[in-house]
Each structure stands twice: as structure tokens, then as C-alpha cells.
Amino acid sequence: MSIQLTSISKRYGTQQAVNNISFSVKKGEIVGFLGPNGAGKSTTMKILTGYIKPTAGAVLVNDIDVVMNPIEAQKQIGYLPEHNPLYLEMYVREYLQFQAGIHKVSKDAVNVVIEKVGLTIEAHKKLNQLSKGYRQRVGIAAAILHNPDVLILDEPTTGLDPNQLVEIRLLIKELGKDKTVL
Ligand code: ADP
Ligand code: MG
Questions:
Q1: Which of 35, 75, 77, 166 is the most exposed place for a label (fewest CB within 10 A)?
Q2: Maximal C-alpha separation, the chain
Q3: Tell me: the pLDDT tens digits for 10-40?
């Protein structure tokens, strides 16, 4: 199993954000994670990526316990957070090289992901000059730099125009050929 959540709950103070959910995702699946606003989707994804700890329950990614061993688990995971935080004053290539440095992967990986997500023609631009769809591609490129097995994408198509929405879905489908995607 690529992802295995068992009886996960999360409370922020008095606010119950996630109440005892369990699910699993098999290797190579692309799974949609749906629910109304405030249902606890982003919180669940933050738990899955080791960004916050659950109040109760267990979470495994590629059989690695995310709570006990977050760094090892995070090597398996690419995460596109909600609102795709980017340093907008940086250039596309510069930003991805910066991210590559954090992940300690070779700078060659930057060219590979730029090509893979279809950013080649925009790679010389500043992030604040890009359309929303191309900014999403940069976020996805950053998420796959270390070639993770599992991709966790939080609302990757929200706010995109219809053309870009179709293109990002196609990209996710393409990436899903050799990765598990939530
Ligand atoms: P979704 O992504 O499904 O819209 P969230 O996981 O963002 O849902 O939020 C679930 C619930 O937890 C909501 O009621 C939200 O207001 C609350 N919540 C989320 N983050 C925090 C936080 N850091 N502190 C307090 N409450 C939070
Ligand atoms: Mg959310």
C-alpha cells in the first residue's frame, strides 16, 4: 500500500478538524479526495505529509510511519500545498534550483522537471509574470524534483481557467503513470 491512514483524528484546540478517518491508496492509483469546505481534507494531507501530527491514529507512506519517521517518509512524498506558496520574485529556473538544493538533488533534475511539466517556454520568466496555470506547474515541478513515489496535491486545479484546468489534469494523469497521486 502506498498510503495507509488508520483511525486518524485531529483537533485544533476545541475544533475537531478530522474525526477518525481511515483509507488506503494502492501503488499507482490516482485518487480524488473530496469533501465540502472545512471537511478536513487539507488537515488530512498535512498529517499525511508529516507537516502536522495527528491527535490520534497512524499513517504509513510506503510502509514508513510518517509520525515516527517524518524525514524518511518525506523522501517518498511530493507535496503541493493549498495556495501553492512560491517566492514570486524568483525566476522559474532559479526557484527550482533553490528547491533542488534543499532536497540535495542534482541541478540536472531541474531541467528534467521543467521539461516534464511543460515549463520549458516559461522557464526564463519571473514567477510573478506567470499565469496561474504555469505557477501550478512550478509547484508541481518543485514537488517532483526528488522523484517521489507518492504525490499529495491539495486543490491543484482550483482557480484555473477551463483550458488550464484541462492541461493540469492531463499533467496529473501523465505523472500518475509512475506515481501514486492523491
Ligand atoms: P478542507 O481542506 O477540507 O476545507 P481543513 O482541513 O482546511 O478543511 O479544515 C478543517 C477544519 O479545521 C475547519 O473547520 C478549519 O476551520 C479548521 N482548521 C484548519 N486549520 C486550522 C488551524 N490551524 N487552527 C484551527 N482550526 C483549523
Ligand atoms: Mg483544503
A1: 35
A2: 48
A3: 999 999 999 999 999 999 999 999 999 999 9
